[in-house]
Amino acid sequence: MQQTVFGAALFALSLLSMCAEASPAPDFPLLSADAGGAKTFRALGSNWRKLIVFAPEGRNLGIAGMKWNAARAKLAEPEFGRGLAERDVVVIVAAREEISLAAGVKSARVPAEAIPATRTAFALGEGDGATVLVGKDGEIAQVWRGHLDPAAIFAAIDAMPMRQAEKRERSR
Fold this sequence. Notes:
The chain is an alpha/beta fold. The chain has helices at residues 2-20, 63-75, 78-86, 115-121, 150-158, 161-171; strands spanning 49-54, 89-94, 106-109, 130-134, 140-145. Strand 4 and strand 5 (140-145) form a beta hairpin.
């Protein structure tokens, strides 16, 4: 009886670990990718971490609109740009408006007609502003809703095993 309970517990734990694994990011079209001229998200390959920044959409955005204005300002900050470049990050902007990024930041855009499907693929509502981090392995690492926090983004990237290995290699 104890072996059966133990076996069932191990099976349940294995199912939980499979469910807890990161899910692969969906593919979607890109415009003007200056990271190798990729025309789709997956075509960016495994040389880059991807930071997808979704602008909030809809009417009467209120606080979401104010947070988006703050996020746009952060995207243009040189210090944020240097941190992204150091961590091999491509910023993918999913916004209908033109966004200025810090000098040296690799970037791409989601075509306006593909933004709704891309939002749906990431389970984001129409009004949500969000930032999605995808690792070099193509797995969704983190989703932040409503704001863009460079410190949280850098901490999440720096905690990734591949990033830690890169830092060790670069320090040699």
